[in-house]
Write a structure and sequence with these properties.
The structure is a single chain. The protein contains two helices and nine strands; from the N terminus they run βααββββββββ. By secondary structure, the chain is mostly beta strands. The protein has a single domain, classed as Purple Acid Phosphatase, chain A, domain 2 (4-Layer Sandwich). The strands form two sheets. A five-stranded mixed sheet has the order 1-2-4-3-5, with no helix packed on it. It has a four-stranded antiparallel sheet with strand order 6-7-8-9, with no helix packed on it.
Amino acid sequence: MYGHHPAYFAAGKGENPLVVRELMPILKGRADVYIAGHYHSLEHLKPVDGVNLFISAGGGRPLYPVDPTLPGVLWAVDEFGFAVIEVEQKQLKVSFIGTDGKELHSAMIEKRDGPTCSGGEGCGSVYGNVPQMRLKTGGE
């Protein structure tokens, strides 16, 4: 899923209450990834309710400050750059590239077998039970 405004970001209060309230419940159990722009930075945030979060907005001026030490942040920089998204049947890779063409950060997300949920709110929707993706870092 792609949207302009991020739900969460690596600065200040770290969230957009409207997106968190209105969009995140829709994505839960239905989307593996939410990639946003708007906040002029490059960010990889911790998954929320099974949704992996990325911000690729390093092409705007001015760059916005980030705090990579915030609890929900896996990686964040206030640098110019862009994201390359590679999608295969069972995996998705997001790579952040700097203005020098070098990779700054990447994350591989692998599709798990089985449903994300087994009953309850958000399950059995018109989208059906969608298999969840698992974040794979360099240490796995």
